[in-house]
Write the structure tokens for this entry.
Amino acid sequence: MPMLLNSDPGLFDLDRALVALAAISNLAVAAWLVSLKKRDVSIVDGLWPIFIWIVGLAYAWATPMSPRGGMALSLLTIWAARLCIHITVRNHGEPEDRRYQKIRANNQPHFEWKSLYIVFLLQAALAWIVALPLMATSQSATGFGLLDVTAVGVILFGIVFEACADWQLMRFKERTDTRGQVLETGLWRYSRHPNYFGECCVWWGFGVLGLVAGAWWSLASPILMTVLLLKVSGVVLLEADIGERRPGYVRYIRATSAFVPRKPKLQAAD
């Protein structure tokens, strides 16, 4: 049976946090061993939502389930299942992602061993921070209010928005006449990275749920996710060389918002 370790959701419970970190670290090591056999560290992408889900599950298991905690865990499960399935299907049968190929080339010799901490344990640690709101919501016994409803709405909007963007991009890539072209329709007409915008909304929603529960430190989650999506593994990294592979992307950048959807500018001729 779960046991109540800390009845104050505003307090950061180090014991529970370390148990959760140990759980996903073990999974990261197991995934790393698989990657050695496959010579492909891209498998960590599909595990990213699972890392976060396991942390949320660990927090929920440690305390009696509160209404806010149950709602947060249900939303987290929907988010994690959808994203894990999408990434797994997208990467099935594909070679190692070019981003990881570059990391592999830049960390020779012995990248196989370095990848344990450069890729797998690092992502586990980041997932542990991103999942912080789930610690607060799992301990919260207060009733729902307007901010809870707003936060849940933002999370659901983010999940649906990201799923639609991913589906549109997948359909675009499946076509045989789009090689070297740029997707500029649907949600991608208003943002160059609508999937990342949806993901960002999800975690600001969870951050607000944690804040309502009394844990200001829950905001570390959406802040970190926003930085990752905008400055680290998201927009900046993906657009570093995309203009070389897709010449039309330079014009697309001039016309289209990088992140927050808005009406595109008039596109100048190339």
